[in-house]
Write a structure and sequence with these properties.
about 80 residues; mainly alpha; 3 helices; about 0% strand; elongated
Length: about 80
């Protein structure tokens, strides 16, 4: 009983946040809400874990690119 209640709560909260973040995707800052929703859903669902890992790789790549850009700008 506890396990099904946990899964239901995670699905409801994560799903609501996911829908909310998709609706407002054009607004600044909602990408963070999308990542939070996927992280909550990743507690129970394998498909969400894959998307979180993909997002982590993309964010790491973006951070490295930004670091390189800042280093270039400081050299000039």
């Amino acid at each position: 009983m506890k396990q099904s209640l946990r899964k239901t709560l995670i699905t409801l909260i994560g799903g609501a946040l996911l829908i909310f973040s998709i609706i407002f995707i054009a607004l600044p800052g909602t990408i963070l809400l999308l990542l939070i929703a996927l992280t909550i859903l990743a507690l129970e669902y394998q498909w969400a874990r894959r998307h979180v890992k993909t997002a982590q790789r993309m964010l790491s790549k973006s951070a490295k690119g930004l670091d390189n850009f800042i280093i270039k700008c400081r050299r000039k």
